């Protein structure tokens, strides 16, 4: 996991590091350096100003951090001992209330925070300054309502939207906090709301009911003392998890007896880790008892009880629960287009200030630019609607309507592997015994060998055949026993327990496990004749090919963790009394555990190259004395409160030695539909794809090849494992000599390289056509996204389907979640949700393109609409010796930006330069979008020149040509202005839509009607004369025809790339 201490942007630190690299390169010596080795150093140097600025920035940062720490008191979490069945009022005072609160505001902070969010953008701040300036009589032009009315409308709409969203959050929180639960008391069962639950309460949780707080599992109505829970809203996994009640309390005659015992539960201090727990249960009455507690004895908040009814004692509430501690408040994402518009607004403001100093007025050049924010926000809503209604992407949901344009600016796509590029649907493909390998085509041989092994010895084959048969028997038996899978029958409540083992047919049983790999293995053993028919806390029953049942007592289970990368189980054969320790795990850890062999490493590589997920299976026979000694040491280690994990691991390490290697299994994770074509489409569009996975290097490399993440013409450079600075230096130099090669690196090696050569690693990795980071933790995924954003300044997109991808999705500029087998957590946390990876191509290339292009045209046209009237106002004011006189009445100013031009301008959200088919057929068109040419300083200044030209033509033309009829200046100029805007919309449109035609005609009709209705603003007699018509026509023609000619010539001699395709 990459630490924050490795992320620095200081130029001074960068210079120091480069200096160290230069010294290090020199220390290697010319005799030890290859002729083609390139030292890791750069030619850039920092100047004095940069160093001073860096020093000042560091001082400010340290000062602000110190003030923040002094003002903010960090909460200190403490462990606790909770008495069972004993009321303690201190618990409610010491520990936080069990209240869920997802609101952003309260009654006091709502207005200040909303206003801060609005005015932190210069665009809105500019509007506020312009409105405030009108309180100064010397610079006031027109009426205050023409400024404060639109600004108030924009702020009111925003506040209303924020209020509605926060009220919805409040209502959702109220529903959750008001859910009723049964609380067990000495006087019976009472019902309380979730918010009234405190530490120490005994809570009864029924089937399909959400767990309201973190509890320790005491009792259940299930006879086997266990229950299943669904954790999809906690960790994103849809497979049910098995939880075990404390055996001592489970043996009580009734729930009420919990009040008659003297017992307590010790719980560690609250932690973020949802996969571990350290605690103890101790009873100090006549039945003295003590036992260790782990994750299997807990029910975390927001999980759902899937079987039976559970009784638990509350140990963590409110913000100390695992669920809340792992919930991060996502930051509001700001699109790059919004940032660019904010920059252009600053330039407009600077231009207005300069012009104000010259003409000594302010308002006259403000223009109706307040509509820019409204048009853009409304456009985003329309784009989101188009995305959700696209029939080619069923199930697509837009959860963040503020950044649809970001989809058109993506440079880096960071993707999960399992469940995203692959289906997370495991199919058993290969069994390798060292000398014999069985694939899908030869599974009938496995059935035959297994059937033979369970028959009498007299029916055995020859010596060679018998050896193969016995090895198949041991391997399949180990796979059938070494797992944490439980069969769940549909009619389990109605079927007598003695008949449960006789149930036949796969239709009536469902296998539940925390990993789909284990389910695939158990289904395979069933298909070859050795099926799992029953499992409880104490035993497991298998059905052999001869339809006999074999029981095995479960002595110990060591679950799989991401740290150990293996799981084990100790069983006793009920018929023979033999004790066997079975273990399976990743080849990287099992190679040092199993006996020496000469085939495992090679075959693991072969299977990985085929895209198979491998597991090594081994066993070890134990005597009774060996097991008793191990059990005693293991129980002592489990009772440790401090360093329990390390002590338990040390005991297990003594058992995990010199194990007999049984077999190697290969399970295939199928690719998602159309993954290859989608990745090739994105690569041709200039998007660099990085695959971040927790899988091993070989499998990740194989999936990268099979999915075409790495193109056919690209090579692959596998970064060797490095642990020191010197090793990292050598490997980085080796990679620099490669050209056009995809980079495959482990998370551990990446962390070492980033520790010493952060800038170099990021720069060189970004030059690779594709990057695969394997053995990558969830936190590392998010850190890699942040590195790309900070170092490259490009727009990033992250896509995943599991809870372990949420941090990466939230860190990216655009997060996309896939609704998959791992649950809805990634989908709910993402900005956009899709049902399959193949939809990503259309989402980016079509909708991303349209959203960005349309917003760029819309924003620039709205700015033009404000600039042209500002130019006219400037010319008009200069005629009157720079007096603060408004050209048009306030009512016409408001109408100009609304009813007279609003519909045609906003209809630009329907415009598109190419069809969806062309955008998908020629993904190379997407490359141009990442350059940001649709909205740049060049296009901005071009629209400024157009605005100045048209405003000057209309105003100067009216003053020069029609000076004898000055009283009609408003009629002529305003009419010419409206017609010019309507014609400019038509000039801007690239693909006409029937709604655009309606909008143009509607706005023209509204304006013509207003000429007849608004007699106080227009001279109705003059409007009926031919003089008015031809003068307006001439001004409009002179302002627009040259632009039409320029557009025609440009399209003729220098057409854009997309026009050639059309």
UniProtKB/TrEMBL annotation:
<feature type="binding site">
    <location>
        <position position="518"/>
    </location>
    <ligand>
        <name>ATP</name>
    </ligand>
</feature>
<keyword id="KW-0479">Metal-binding</keyword>
<keyword id="KW-0445">Lipid transport</keyword>
<keyword id="KW-0547">Nucleotide-binding</keyword>
<feature type="transmembrane region" description="Helical">
    <location>
        <begin position="940"/>
        <end position="960"/>
    </location>
</feature>
<feature type="binding site">
    <location>
        <position position="693"/>
    </location>
    <ligand>
        <name>ATP</name>
    </ligand>
</feature>
<feature type="binding site">
    <location>
        <position position="418"/>
    </location>
    <ligand>
        <name>Mg(2+)</name>
    </ligand>
</feature>
<feature type="active site" description="4-aspartylphosphate intermediate">
    <location>
        <position position="416"/>
    </location>
</feature>
<keyword id="KW-0812">Transmembrane</keyword>
<dbReference type="GO" id="GO:0016887">
    <property type="term" value="F:ATP hydrolysis activity"/>
</dbReference>
<feature type="binding site">
    <location>
        <position position="805"/>
    </location>
    <ligand>
        <name>ATP</name>
    </ligand>
</feature>
<feature type="binding site">
    <location>
        <position position="775"/>
    </location>
    <ligand>
        <name>ATP</name>
    </ligand>
</feature>
<feature type="domain" description="P-type ATPase C-terminal">
    <location>
        <begin position="828"/>
        <end position="1055"/>
    </location>
</feature>
<keyword id="KW-0813">Transport</keyword>
<feature type="transmembrane region" description="Helical">
    <location>
        <begin position="107"/>
        <end position="132"/>
    </location>
</feature>
<feature type="binding site">
    <location>
        <position position="560"/>
    </location>
    <ligand>
        <name>ATP</name>
    </ligand>
</feature>
<dbReference type="GO" id="GO:0045332">
    <property type="term" value="P:phospholipid translocation"/>
</dbReference>
<dbReference type="InterPro" id="IPR018303">
    <property type="entry name" value="ATPase_P-typ_P_site"/>
</dbReference>
<dbReference type="GO" id="GO:0006890">
    <property type="term" value="P:retrograde vesicle-mediated transport, Golgi to endoplasmic reticulum"/>
</dbReference>
<keyword id="KW-1133">Transmembrane helix</keyword>
<dbReference type="InterPro" id="IPR001757">
    <property type="entry name" value="P_typ_ATPase"/>
</dbReference>
<dbReference type="GO" id="GO:0006897">
    <property type="term" value="P:endocytosis"/>
</dbReference>
<feature type="binding site">
    <location>
        <position position="416"/>
    </location>
    <ligand>
        <name>Mg(2+)</name>
    </ligand>
</feature>
<dbReference type="Pfam" id="PF13246">
    <property type="entry name" value="Cation_ATPase"/>
</dbReference>
<dbReference type="GO" id="GO:0000139">
    <property type="term" value="C:Golgi membrane"/>
</dbReference>
<feature type="transmembrane region" description="Helical">
    <location>
        <begin position="891"/>
        <end position="910"/>
    </location>
</feature>
<dbReference type="GO" id="GO:0005768">
    <property type="term" value="C:endosome"/>
</dbReference>
<feature type="binding site">
    <location>
        <position position="417"/>
    </location>
    <ligand>
        <name>ATP</name>
    </ligand>
</feature>
<keyword id="KW-1278">Translocase</keyword>
<dbReference type="GO" id="GO:0005886">
    <property type="term" value="C:plasma membrane"/>
</dbReference>
<feature type="binding site">
    <location>
        <position position="584"/>
    </location>
    <ligand>
        <name>ATP</name>
    </ligand>
</feature>
<dbReference type="InterPro" id="IPR023299">
    <property type="entry name" value="ATPase_P-typ_cyto_dom_N"/>
</dbReference>
<dbReference type="Pfam" id="PF16209">
    <property type="entry name" value="PhoLip_ATPase_N"/>
</dbReference>
<dbReference type="InterPro" id="IPR023214">
    <property type="entry name" value="HAD_sf"/>
</dbReference>
<dbReference type="InterPro" id="IPR036412">
    <property type="entry name" value="HAD-like_sf"/>
</dbReference>
<feature type="binding site">
    <location>
        <position position="416"/>
    </location>
    <ligand>
        <name>ATP</name>
    </ligand>
</feature>
<dbReference type="InterPro" id="IPR032631">
    <property type="entry name" value="P-type_ATPase_N"/>
</dbReference>
<feature type="transmembrane region" description="Helical">
    <location>
        <begin position="144"/>
        <end position="164"/>
    </location>
</feature>
<keyword id="KW-0472">Membrane</keyword>
<feature type="binding site">
    <location>
        <position position="694"/>
    </location>
    <ligand>
        <name>ATP</name>
    </ligand>
</feature>
<dbReference type="GO" id="GO:0005802">
    <property type="term" value="C:trans-Golgi network"/>
</dbReference>
<dbReference type="Pfam" id="PF00122">
    <property type="entry name" value="E1-E2_ATPase"/>
</dbReference>
């Amino acid at each position: 996991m990459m630490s924050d201490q490795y992320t620095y942007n200081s130029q001074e630190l960068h210079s120091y590091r480069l200096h160290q690299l230069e010294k290090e390169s020199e220390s290697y010596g010319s005799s030890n350096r290859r002729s083609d080795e390139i030292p890791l150093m750069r030619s850039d140097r920092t100047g004095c100003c940069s160093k001073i600025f860096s020093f000042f920035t560091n001082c400010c940062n340290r000062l602000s951090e110190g003030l923040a720490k002094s003002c903010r008191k960090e909460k200190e979490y403490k462990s606790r001992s909770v008495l069972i069945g004993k009321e303690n009022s201190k618990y409610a005072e010491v520990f936080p209330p069990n209240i869920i609160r997802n609101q952003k505001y309260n009654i006091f902070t709502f207005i200040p925070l909303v206003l801060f969010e609005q005015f932190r953008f210069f665009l809105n701040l500019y509007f506020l300054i312009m409105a405030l300036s009108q309180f100064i009589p010397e610079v006031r032009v027109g009426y205050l309502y023409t400024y404060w009315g639109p600004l108030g409308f924009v702020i009111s709409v925003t506040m209303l939207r924020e209020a509605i969203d926060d009220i919805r959050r409040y209502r959702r929180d109220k529903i959750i906090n008001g859910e009723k639960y049964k609380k067990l008391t000495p006087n019976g069962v009472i019902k309380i709301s979730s918010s009234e639950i405190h530490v120490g309460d005994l809570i009864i949780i029924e089937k399909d009911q959400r767990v309201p707080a973190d509890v320790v599992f005491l009792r259940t109505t299930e006879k086997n003392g266990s229950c299943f829970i669904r954790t999809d809203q906690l960790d994103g996994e849809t497979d049910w998890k098995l939880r075990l009640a404390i055996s001592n309390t489970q043996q009580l005659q009734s729930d009420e007896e919990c009040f008659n015992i003297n017992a307590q539960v010790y719980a560690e201090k609250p932690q973020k880790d949802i996969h571990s727990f350290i605690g103890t249960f101790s009873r100090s009455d006549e039945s003295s008892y003590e036992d260790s507690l782990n994750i299997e004895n807990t029910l975390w908040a927001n999980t759902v009880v899937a079987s039976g009814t559970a009784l638990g004692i509350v140990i963590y509430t409110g913000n100390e629960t695992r669920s809340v501690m792992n919930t991060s408040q996502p930051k509001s994402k700001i699109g790059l287009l919004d940032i660019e518009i904010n920059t252009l607004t600053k330039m407009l403001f600077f231009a207005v200030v300069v012009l104000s100093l010259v003409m000594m007025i302010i308002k006259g050049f403000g223009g109706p630019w307040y509509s820019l924010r409204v048009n853009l926000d409304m456009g985003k809503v329309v784009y989101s609607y188009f995305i959700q209604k696209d029939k080619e992407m069923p199930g697509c949901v837009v959860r963040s309507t503020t950044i649809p344009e970001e989809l058109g600016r993506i440079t880096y796509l960071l993707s999960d592997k399992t469940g995203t590029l692959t289906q997370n649907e495991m199919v058993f493909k290969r069994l390798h015994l060292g000398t014999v390998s069985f694939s899908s085509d030869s599974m009938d041989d496995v059935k035959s060998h297994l059937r033979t092994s369970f028959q009498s010895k007299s029916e055995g084959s020859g010596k060679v055949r018998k050896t193969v048969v016995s090895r198949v028997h041991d391997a399949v038996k180990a796979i059938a026993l070494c797992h944490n899978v439980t069969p769940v029958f549909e009619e389990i409540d109605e079927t007598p327990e003695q008949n449960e083992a006789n149930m036949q047919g796969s239709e009536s049983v469902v296998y539940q496990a925390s990993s789909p790999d284990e389910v695939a293995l158990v289904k395979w053993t069933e298909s070859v004749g050795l099926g799992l028919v029953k499992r409880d806390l104490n035993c497991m029953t298998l059905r052999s090919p001869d339809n006999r049942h074999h029981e095995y007592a479960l002595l110990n289970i060591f679950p799989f963790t991401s740290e150990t990368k293996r799981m084990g189980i100790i069983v006793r054969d009920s018929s023979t009394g033999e004790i066997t320790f079975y273990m399976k795990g990743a080849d990287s850890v099992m190679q040092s555990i199993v006996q020496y062999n000469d085939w495992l490493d090679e075959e693991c590589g072969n299977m990985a190259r085929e895209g198979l997920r491998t597991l090594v299976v081994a066993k070890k026979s134990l005597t009774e004395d060996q097991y008793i000694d191990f059990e005693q040491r293991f129980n002592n280690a489990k009772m440790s409160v401090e360093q329990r994990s390390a002590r338990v691991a040390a005991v297990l390490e003594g058992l995990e030695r010199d194990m007999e290697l049984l077999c190697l299994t290969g399970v295939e994770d199928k690719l998602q539909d159309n993954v290859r074509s989608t990745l090739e489409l994105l690569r041709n569009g200039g998007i660099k794809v990085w695959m971040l996975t927790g899988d091993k290097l070989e499998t990740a490399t194989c999936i990268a090849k099979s999915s075409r993440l790495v193109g056919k013409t690209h090579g692959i450079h596998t970064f060797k494992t490095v642990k020191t600075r010197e090793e990292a230096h050598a490997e980085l130099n080796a990679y620099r000599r490669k050209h056009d090669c995809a980079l495959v690196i482990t998370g551990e090696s990446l962390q070492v390289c980033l520790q010493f050569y952060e800038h170099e690693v990021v720069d060189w990795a970004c030059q690779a056509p594709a990057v695969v980071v394997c053995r990558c933790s969830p936190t590392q995924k998010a850190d890699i996204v942040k590195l790309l954003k900070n170092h490259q300044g490009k727009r990033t997109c992250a896509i995943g389907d599991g809870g372990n991808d949420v941090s990466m999705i939230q860190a990216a500029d655009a997060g996309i979640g896939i609704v998959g087998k791992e649950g809805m957590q990634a989908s709910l946390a993402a900005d956009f949700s899709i049902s399959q990876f193949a939809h990503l191509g259309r989402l980016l290339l079509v909708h991303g393109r349209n959203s960005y292009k349309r917003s760029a045209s819309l924003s620039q046209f709205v700015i033009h609409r404000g600039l042209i009237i500002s130019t006219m106002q400037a010319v008009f004011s200069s005629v009157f010796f720079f007096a603060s006189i408004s050209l048009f009445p306030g009512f016409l100013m408001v109408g100009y930006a609304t009813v007279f031009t609003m519909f045609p301008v906003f209809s630009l959200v329907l415009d598109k330069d190419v069809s969806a088919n062309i955008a998908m057929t020629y993904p190379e068109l997407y490359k141009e979008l990442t350059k940001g040419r649709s909205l740049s300083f060049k296009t901005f200044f071009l629209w400024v020149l157009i605005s100045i030209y048209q405003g000057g033509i209309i105003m100067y033309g009216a003053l020069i040509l029609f000076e004898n009829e000055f009283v009609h200046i408003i009629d002529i100029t305003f009419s010419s202005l409206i017609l010019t805007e309507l014609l400019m919309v038509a000039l801007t449109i690239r693909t006409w839509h029937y709604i655009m035609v309606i909008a143009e005609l509607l706005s023209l009709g509204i304006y013509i009607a207003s000429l007849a209705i608004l007699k106080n603003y227009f001279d109705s007699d003059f409007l009926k004369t031919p003089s008015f018509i031809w003068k307006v026509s001439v001004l409009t023609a002179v302002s627009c025809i040259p632009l039409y000619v320029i557009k025609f010539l440009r399209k003729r001699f220098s057409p854009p790339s997309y026009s050639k395709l059309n």
